[in-house]
Amino acid sequence: MRQSSSPAAPTATRARYAERLGLPWWAWPAALAVAALVAVELWLGAPGVRAWLPFVLLLPATAAALWWLGRIRVEVRDDELRVDDARLPVRYVADVVPLDAAGRREVLGVGADPLAFVVQRPWIGGAVQVVLDDPADPTPFWVVSTRHPVELATALLAARDAA
Q1: What gap in Å lies between CA 27 and CA 66, rounded to an integer?
Q2: Which residue in 32, 20, 34, 33 sits closest to 123, CA to CA?
Q3: 91 secondary structure, DSSP code
Q4: 30-56 burial by CB neighbour count: b if 16+ within 10 A, else e?
Q5: Which partner for 23 in 1, 70, 74, 152 could form a disulfide, CB atoms 3.0-4.6 Å apart?
Q6: How far apart are CA 141 and CA 136, in angstroms?
Q7: pLDDT digits (tens, 9 = 90+) for 55-113
Q8: Residues 117, 142: contact at Cβ < 8 Å?
Q9: Residue 145, CA distances (Å) to 32, 49, 60, 152 in order
Q10: Which of 75, 59, 66, 70 is nearest to 13 (CA)?
């Protein structure tokens, strides 16, 4: 066995936290059942194209819409917070506050800051508030939905401290 004298290759960066903000399982059959009901109502026993066209259009469109609603990914990787296509380097993170449903309602309620960056999914109860420390950015904080707010907050603070 031959050993290389070159320095060790950098290991692939792995996600410290990764989550997909998908819909709950019961939303899929419920939404597809509603789409099928609408297709049946449009069909109403008509012959020809009207017999199959509502099913061919509505059921795939509903499935695509459900997939689109659950496409958002939240990751802490490569010294940054990634939320869909938004990136936040962890060096600008001043603090991270895990929020439950009541805390999220308070942060996003009547007195919410209009400059805040918000990625909120109503079917997910928890969230984190990421307070920023970047004088060049007018955004005071990010609010990101997550099913595991404490784990995401811990991963963000660990990434910030390691950077």
Answers
A1: 8
A2: 20
A3: G
A4: ebeeebeeebeeeeeeeeeeeeeebbe
A5: 70
A6: 13
A7: 999 999 999 999 999 999 999 998 899 999 999 999 999 999 999 999 999 999 988 89
A8: yes
A9: 25, 43, 27, 10
A10: 75
